[in-house]
Fold these 4 entries.
Entry 1:
Amino acid sequence: NVNAVGSTNCDTIFLSGPRWVRFMGDSGTQLSTTPTDPNQCGTQVTGWYSGLMPAVTQTVTNGQVCFSWHSNSCTWSNTISVTNCGSFYVYELSMPPVCAARYCTNTP
């Protein structure tokens, strides 16, 4: 979540390859869609979605996740897929480009 303080945590769940993920609960329900400052989201390098969310239910769009580091809001990036499931989104995420990088979530 954007409110979690920074650490050196990594999203290692993606080591075996891309996975479809649905975010739920207090940590947030979707990827952040605005630049996030470094040292938030429980990590040093924060990932946020810079693409367009699919507007129509059951459609998929591809877009870019940017990873913020120092004063650059897009030092590294990954291409992901986002599916509109009506009342929520699911994301096909892959391993962030560097360790100490994680995907950032919030609740819209």
Note: The mean pLDDT is 89.
Entry 2:
Amino acid sequence: MTPLVVIVGADKGGVGKTQVCRALRSYFDRPDMQDLPRPRTLDGQFPRGDLVQFHPEAEIINITDVAGQMRIFDTLEGVTLVDIAAGQLGTMLHACDEARLFEDVKTGTLRLALLHVLGPSISSMDEIKHAISMLGTSATHFIVKNHINETNFFDWDQDSQYAASLRALANITIDVPHLNTVANEAVQQAKTSFLSFVASDGSRTLRGHAARWVEKVFGEFDRVGLGTLIRGAA
């Protein structure tokens, strides 16, 4: 099957990008995905890592370095999941362009998907335009609205121009709900995956909150067709 690279990135910090990547990595561990090979998981938070704290199998890479880029793209098979450090999404897309990887996507020898995690401000819409101009039409571009706190995306929702744009992108927009703060902190302290936390012997209430959140996020992944995309690389 054609290899698939899934990039989880954001132009800004503080939007919960790694949380989304952790949820996506856990998506591979749900029962109906167990027949698929495990994804190769790469942590772009160089040098200390971030994703690796919750998924020890992840490899820490430096995407600003050609050697790091070679580790991503030179030996592709199945699914490769890449968590890009905040602020380095543009760098990653530029590197793909310079190495002519988008040409491979156009010819069908490589598939590329971007989970583009945005913040609640209208300025995030400019990030979408830039990413689209880089990716072209061959790659799959998902928009992720991650509710890292209990506020809504008021700037987006109240501006009629942007609200209309978002409605047009609804079929590729992943809406990640807010995870209860106490439950989220418990998962962070446990330094484990979301599904491992749910299956642990910790607080029944907090595990319940995490389980419901995972259920909703996985439902969003299913709705936009991520599962189908992943199975195409198996």
Note: Residues 100 and 164 are 34 Å apart (CA to CA).
Entry 3:
Amino acid sequence: PRLIRMYDTLTVDDPDHPELDGATVIVLERAEGSLDAVLTHDPKPESAPALLAQICEGLHQLHHAGWIHGDLKPANVLLMKDHSVRLADFNMAAELQGTHAYAPAFATPDYTPPELQWPEIDERG
């Protein structure tokens, strides 16, 4: 399993913080950091091949379940205490319909594929 585990959802009801009243909180598996933090310190980590393989495993798991991530970027690749990878942040995830999925309207520009930024581009460029 290369997808972050969700343990629970809670509704905030705290008299000391009425501004949060009714907010939903998601309780997730605890990560130690992100690939973004690793790449900030070392743009070419020795563990890159293993990390990439685990990211691919997570994408395979997600696609096999009929979904696409929609916003894959280093900040959404979490690293666990045992150095394993978990994909996270599924706000932009979309369900596959055959071989296609609805493309999210908002994604992180630096990590958005060109075919989504410029739909008039075809396989010729």
Note: The helical segments are 35-41, 48-64, 114-117.
Entry 4:
Amino acid sequence: MPGPFAVELVDPPVTYRLRRDALRPAQSVEEMAAFDTGGSDAAVFGAIDLSTGEVMGTASVSRELAPAAVGGTVASSASAAHWRLRAMATRKEHRGQGVGARVLGACVRHVAGQGGGLLWCNARVA
């Protein structure tokens, strides 16, 4: 089980190593900055181990129109309420212990607090 940890808004660079290791191992940590898109309303959350400062899990959300397959259209009047979840990762040794669930919960609460009505993602199972 993980030790005490907190889920909080973090600066994207603190998540680069985890995101690279879990999602894009062929890229350098520096190249991870290219994936920090989403405008000024983007939010990056990290699950931080309170004893070590290690980033155990992360995810980001930003406003982005959903594809038509999940309810988005170019003319959608609700497009401002669409948010995309991306770059979600949990360190291998912390998977299956609720870390990702708590990060996802923080993302959902953030989106709801910003008036979001649809949270969508593309996903793969590691």
Note: Residues 5-120 form a domain with the Aminopeptidase fold (CATH 3.40.630.30).
